[in-house]
Structure formats: C-alpha cells, structure tokens
Design a protein that fits this description.
single chain; 237 residues; mainly beta; M1 Pyruvate Kinase, Domain 3; 7-stranded mixed beta barrel; 3-stranded antiparallel beta sheet
C-alpha cells in the first residue's frame, strides 16, 4: 500500500441543503457517513420529480444550522437564533414563514443518506486553493460541501485520478472512489452570506470551461469503520 495523504476535516449535513457541522471523528456505515442527510423537507412548490426543498432553489436554507446532540436528536438553529427540534411544528412553521415560495412543507426522514448521487464526497484542499487562484478570490472549502476535506500527495486535482480505485482510511474504513462530481449552482452561494453575497455564477462558467463542470470526487463505502481528522489515506492493492 502507498500513502495518498490525510483527512483534514470531516463534515456532515444532518438536514439536506442546510448548513453542515464539522466532526473530529465519525463512523462510516455501509450507506455513508453516519447521520448525514437523514432529514429533508419536501415542498409542494418544488419542481416535478424533485420534491425535496434544496438550497439550489431556496438559498435561505443555508442559513439554518442543524446539530446532532449526544442523544442522537437533531436541533436546528434558525437565522434569528431560535432553536427547534427537527420534528417540531415550530421549525416547520418557521421554514414556511421565511423560505420564499416554500409552499406546504413536510419532514422526510430516512435510514440512509438522502444524497442526490453517491453517499460521500471528497475534495482536496489543494484543489480549492488552485481554483481560488484561478478564479481570483478566496472561495473557501465550505462552499463545496464535501464530507471529507483531504490533503493529498501530488497537489491540486490529484483526487480526479483516484476514480475507480479503492482507498483505506485509518485502520478500518475502505472507500471506492467512484467519479468526479458534476457541480450545480449551489457552489455559487456563499455559505456565510447566502442571501447578502451575490452568487458567483462566473465560477460555474470557469468549471464548465476548464473542468467539465466537475470538482471533487464521489465515493461509496466498501468497508464500514471509524475515521478521524488526521487519519492517513492509503491506496489498497
């Protein structure tokens, strides 16, 4: 085995399209990161075939901050600093009152992550740095909503070459790197100021022109296990 790099940080998103939380340690289940995107909200005004309310269409969603407590329950901190349990009428009412054209909302809970394509996403910090230099401003890694930010040997975009290969993280978990991630306009929104900051639509144009509209890689779990920030990433045979 050869060492490919290290995990820099781990992030999960307890509620689809809301803000994430960074973790020092997390468990990878056969279906993805434990307690990642287990909740979502469906909207009566969502496009046909895309019932879940997402920040692509409603960027106010990024102003809500979920947190998984020690008991496994999820609370959401609203933009006006109210805390509500994920399954409370108070949170549902808040969303319907403050999300533009939210329509009639209902909470959806799943036993597995409600991801669009693959259960995990990885992104190299060197890739974010290189994109920032090319774009002409600091983009910040949180914009790309990766489950794992990594430092890899070889510099920017080296994660692209891992597609189709299996890697081990730490002592237990193994992943199969699947493919490069096609990006949507969600990455144009500033996670710290999704309403006040102008969307960076020119970032999408840069990705389309230079990188086939893709950045970062998807992965799936082949062997469950615990992972920690700082864990080595190894290529498997």
């Amino acid at each position: 085995m050869s060492i490919l790099g290290k995990i820099a940080s781990i992030a999960r998103y307890p509620v689809k399209s809301m803000s994430g939380e960074f973790l020092a340690r997390a468990y990878l289940t056969p279906y993805g990161l434990d307690r990642d995107r287990l909740y979502a909200f469906e909207s009566s005004s969502a496009p046909a075939g895309m019932l879940r309310l997402t920040a692509r269409e409603r960027r106010q969603m990024l102003q809500y901050h979920p947190h998984v407590g020690a008991d496994g329950g999820v609370e959401v901190l609203t933009p006006d600093w109210e805390r509500h349990p994920i399954d409370s009428a108070a949170l549902l009412n808040h969303l319907q009152a403050h999300i533009t054209d939210a329509g009639r909302l209902s909470l959806m809970q799943s036993l597995t992550p409600q991801t669009d394509v693959r259960p995990l996403s990885l992104l190299s910090l060197a890739t974010v740095e290189a994109l920032s230099k090319e774009f002409g401003m600091t983009l910040g890694e949180r914009r790309f909503r990766a489950n794992m930010l990594v430092n890899l040997v070889g510099g920017a975009f080296v994660e692209d070459a891992l597609a189709g290969r299996q890697v081990r993280i730490g002592n237990e978990a193994k992943l199969l790197i699947r493919e490069r991630i096609p990006r949507c306009r969600l990455i144009t929104y500033d996670p710290d100021a999704p309403i006040d900051a102008e969307p960076l639509f020119s970032l999408m144009k840069l990705l389309d022109r230079r990188y086939q509209g893709r950045v970062g890689v998807y992965a799936s779990v082949t062997t469950p296990g615990w992972i920690e920030a700082g864990d080595d990433i190894w290529e498997e045979g």
